[in-house]
Amino acid sequence: MYVSIEVPEIADYPNGFPQHWLKVLFIGSLSFNFQINALASTYVRLVEAALVEYRIGQSKLKEFWGTHTSLNLTAMYRSISHFESCLSDMHRAICCFTRLRHHKDLPQGLCLALNEEKPRFIAHQISDQLRKIRNEIHHLEELVMDGRLQEGKPFALKPDGPETTHPTEPNQTVKTIDRLVIAKRELKFSDLAAWLIEMGRFAEKIAAYEAPR
Questions:
Q1: Which residue has the higher pLDDT, 26 or 17?
Q2: Is 149 helix (H, G, I), strand (E, B) or coil?
Q3: How many CB atoms lie within 10 A of CB 67?
């Protein structure tokens, strides 16, 4: 069996959003409203964290499949843990962003920056997908803790994908690792990466906003 790892790299925002933190530290807050400042900084922080977790998860997944001298299960389980954290951070960031975007006291300039286009990641189809898979992770953890999980059932995320016949080599297959699966839910890495990049773009909008003085 051949294995194809299809987890897109995210080259965007390699250092996070330092401009935001420098402004908070040396210039001042975005608004005189504490909740707006808290929501904005929490959103930026969680998007930064999600990007880091995604990159480490991707790296450890490649390390697992790239180790041929032993069964590197440590790398696989670390990859799973980082992707679990990534999904949780994304879900929390979306909740913050939704509240921030519609806050009645949002400064006009920031309101225009965050509302001139509607990001895809806050669409119900996407935000619900992230929320449900995040809730599935927590639900399975509860089943493990109280002993209700049946033997043989999954108890963590699994990087997975389809296995197809090799196009040129007889009796060989190609296993494509292109999604995360838990119970009956799945999420493609390509979608995850696209949403994260878009979330980063809106974090940049927050970081670039100049509050009137």
A1: 17
A2: coil
A3: 14
